Amino acid sequence: MPDIYRALGDSTRRRILSMLKQENKTQKEIVEAFAISQPAIKKHLNILLEENIITESLKGKYRIYSLNFNVLQITLHELHQFTGELLDSQLVSLKNYVEKGEVQDEHD
User: Fold this and answer.
1) Under a CB-based contact definition with an 8 Å cutoff, are residues 54 and 41 in contact?
2) Residue 4 pLDDT grade (very low, low, confident, very high; cuts 50, 70, 90)
3) What percent of the residues of the chain are helix, what percent strand, and what percent coil, each to the nearest 5?
4) Using an 8 Å Cβ cutoff, are 26 and 63 in contact?
5) Is 103's pLDDT higher than 60?
6) Contact 61, 15 (CB under 8 A)
7) Kind and range of the H or E run holding 97
8) Could you read off the pLDDT of 13-54 as tens digits, one per residue?
């Protein structure tokens, strides 16, 4: 599973992903949308590539970036399953607590 937290943990990377959900973009188009340097954008793109969240292809002399929808869909499913398991565990704990009739003192 890609490290989705690494990929989404930065606002610049989230903005790049938002741009790519509209349509594929060249590196130049992505760089022009930000007030930071091309090398800084390239570092963000590399992180997204390393996590397999986006793909890169060459068209002539241009690098074209696209969302990797398959990986995003699988990752979303795995995150959903993981959070469901966490919530199930918490709900079981709550159920056990309520069934025992324990009341916690407000001053504890």
Assistant:
1) no
2) confident
3) 65, 15, 25
4) yes
5) no
6) no
7) helix 69-100
8) 999 999 999 999 999 999 999 999 999 999 999 999 999 999
Q: Are strands 54-59 and 62-67 parallel, antiparallel or unpaired?
A: antiparallel
Angstrom distance (rounded) from CA 68 to CA 80: 18
Cα gap 51→108, rounded to integer Å: 45
- The number of C-alpha atoms within 13 Å of 22 and in the hemisphere containing its C-beta is 8
Q: How many CB atoms lie within 10 A of CB 64?
A: 15
104/74 Cα distance (integer angstroms):
41
C-alpha span between 73 and 51 (Å, rounded): 14
- List the structure tokens of 70: 């398959």
pTM of the model: 0.72
